[in-house]
Amino acid sequence: MRKTLALAFYSLVMTLAQPVARRKWLRRAKQEPLYGLHLPERMGYYTCPAEVSQRSVPLVWLHTVSLGETRAVVPFLQALRQALPGMRLLLTHGTATGREAGQALLQAGDLQVWQPWDSPAAVQRFVRHFQPSIGLLMETEVWPNLAHVCREAGIPLCLVNARMSEKTLRQSLRWSSLALPAYRALHGVWAQTEADAQRLRQLGATVQGVMGNFKYDVHPSPSLQAQGRAWRDACRVQQGIPVLLFASSREGEETLWLEALQTLSSTQQGAPRVQWLVVPRHPQRFGEVAQLLEQAGYVVQRRSQWGDAGPQLNTPQPTVWLGDSLGEMPLYFGMAHVALLGGSFAPLGGQNLIEAAACGVPIVMGPHTFNFTQACLDAEQTGVARRVADIGQAVHAATAWAYGAQLPQTQVLAQDWVAQHRGAAQRTAHAVRAVLG
Description:
CATH topology of the largest domain: Rossmann fold
Structural class: alpha/beta
Strand order of the largest sheet: 3-2-1-4-5-6-7
Strand content: 5-15%
Largest sheet: 7 strands, parallel
CATH architecture of the largest domain: 3-Layer(aba) Sandwich
CATH superfamily of the largest domain: 3-Deoxy-D-manno-octulosonic-acid transferase, N-terminal domain
CATH class of the largest domain: Alpha Beta
Shape: globular
């Protein structure tokens, strides 16, 4: 596959940008130390042996860039290990939260490294060192040099659980001389929905099937949910109020939410009381959000300080619970009667609402859900989710829903809706096995 002029220029830019990227990772390491570790891996230099000569089973390279993708890939990886007994896993990530969560997915003989920087030299070193039997990229992670080098090396590179929003399609078409060769270089794509498949075909991808979404196959921890529900029920019994969760809030959204609360309290005397729980999407913002809440006049109770006792109830001052831990979203959803969907009140595309529904939590979402278009539409039509125009309406709708008589039926409906959409992980694992022959 001949390198295009656009790819040659992109490669030059990525090569020259390596020192800038290194400084960025070191800056991030001040808040998340894992970013400062194993930096040579980013440029394709490894200390872990690949043991290519001793390989008698496939080495499956699976790339999950961040925390959300790493959580979502769990049922797919379980299905892969069943479909390919004895397979070895090469797991790569782009973020510290993804890499930390990925450690729990490793078995004996598996490998975990950083995603190679998308310069020709770094990607070539990565491919030569590990020589994976197949490459599986989660959802959206298509990189021009990665696709080109794998095609040249004869490594089937596939996009699994693939999604493509209208916004991303428009951006890709603006850079068509770079994007189209990358998508055409993929061996195959398995899309979440038919709409995703149609958009991916416009970029030249070979769509081999529409499988559904892995996120429906995730089974949130029952023990964490049970603990969360115990604390939620204690709040309802002792204080007589429901718990509302702002799940995976993004930068700027907490400010909009606080303004909405202030407006509500000043215009509606005697409005129903609720207990708010806020869980920011990115861990590096935990301290920033805590400070923001305190400046707004709230007492902040941080999950990292609760221990096993849970949050303190019946406090004399207005209190917000802050979820500042990783890997405990089932706990937080267990604590909630209704959830607001983070990322949907600013033009960020929304976060995953499926996990909330799997825990039996109805969702109120804003206008921006292009990352999960079909899932949000299905949830809304089923009655599991409600869409509002802004966060002020969301606060009002969530409060009314939490006090409404139909809440228990909706909680059951949410779990049933998720169960009806399961099976994508198993179907995709069998498709991968077919590629490997």
